[in-house]
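Quick question, first post here. What does this chain look like in 3D?
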Amino acid sequence: MADIDPITRGRRAYEQLAWRDAYTDLSDADRQSPLNAVDLERLARAAYLIGRFDAADSAWERAHHDYLGRGETAAAARCAFWLGLTLHQRGENARGGGWLGRSRRLLDEASLDCVERGYLRIPEALQTLDRDAEAARRAFVEIAALADRFDDADLRALGRLGQGQALVAQGLASQGVAMFDEAMVAITTDEVSAIAAGIVYCATVLACREIFDLHRAQEWTAALGRWCATQQDLKPYRGQCLVHRSEIMQLRGEWVDAMDEVLQACEHLSDPPGDPVLGMALYQQAELLRLRGEFARAERCYREAGVRGHHLQPGLALLRLAQGRLDDARAAIERAITEADGAVERSKSLAAYVEIELAVGRVEDASAAVEEFDAIAARFDSPYLRAVVGYARGSVLLAGGDAGAACAALRGAWVAWHELEAPYEAARVRLRMAEACERLGDHDSAEMELDAARRVLEQLGAAPALEQARVLAGRSALRSSGGLTPRELEVLRLVATGATNREIAETLVISDKTVARHLSNMFTKLGLSSRAAATAYAYEHELV
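> Answer (accepted):
Ran it through. Tokens below.
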């Protein structure tokens, strides 16, 4: 294609979604002879999609002025809109607001009835969403109707996305996801341009995460990944896709791959600097490090995520709990719960709140939190939420002394986690079940649950949870020992090896008389009368 002029190459590359090639060729053509407004829009979009944001801003601004000079006010307003919106997405709110205001003024002064008016209603509707979800929904319905009237696929998809967000905000999750699915169909059939498609993809995945619709989040994350792979050198949406993929891998127990994915995301999002999604990536990295017991590295990542504006809870509070800093953990999670805006936002920290409150012995507060959590979960058809609530309820019942009811709640939680193919969460449930079974005197079941959990946790490298399993195993062994002291247990184990009193005394560096006293106490506690019976007891209870 070397003999084809760069502007033709650039246009072809643009149609083929080869954004880097389109940017390079259109830039070459622009240096040879200034591009017209239409090609400047192509250049702006290609530049934006490969992360050349300054170049995109400049091209949109030039296209805007070119259209104005030719009297094409609606097209000029469209360029101003996209420039303003993308500036807002990058956190440049003053400049972004200025360009959106200019776009609106141009249309008002010209009294134009055009599709661009629908685009300009989107920021206003999104602002309304925070304070009046029903008003926002009506606004997005009108936006979608305007899109239908002008047959604009981008605006139609954005309008349906907004309707879904508004319905979810009203607690109508099932109706909301139906709107998301409808918007996504247009994306997957290539009806929507790349920038609008990226916005819809990412917002839909985030919304599904917000309402705990794990299956949809996984499905649309996979679709987002496939879409990103078709866009040459795509920058703005690939990083967020990598973060979501890491979250899903973590849930499935693919922790090594999840870490690789989030490290790629951090690298991708660091160039150019300033991408707010980097905070999300750093938080996800911190979560993986915390679960693996790498507390110092986890803390650094949490702090870096906070610097970039990402919420640190409940992850940081759970880190403090794992570090044994109970007062700090409780203060952090209580503040997160208090500051949470609305029930769904509170639910993100309620599971951690229950765990921390139980750790400090506040069973009643934990129980009240479970009831609130259960009421929130009832609003959603979410196996994930049922599993989280089941584990929390079982933990509270166990702490309150009702091991039988705890077993029933935990069994339901384990089934849900197993169906979600979430091995770490299922293993944590089994640790709780082992404790409940032990309290009920069902030592065989307790041992089997503990062993099953330990195998999974070892495979994952979940060091803090493995330590919990070790402590639980120690308690179980102590209960199985019939109330023997640690020294009496040592004597019993040596008796089981066939050692004489003198050999035991030499091994433990104590007197023969002390050995005899320990043997007498041990026989009394266990109701035994001979060394042979003591040996049988030790092997039966796996104390050797």
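Residues 402-478 form one domain.
The two ends are 78 Å apart (CA to CA).
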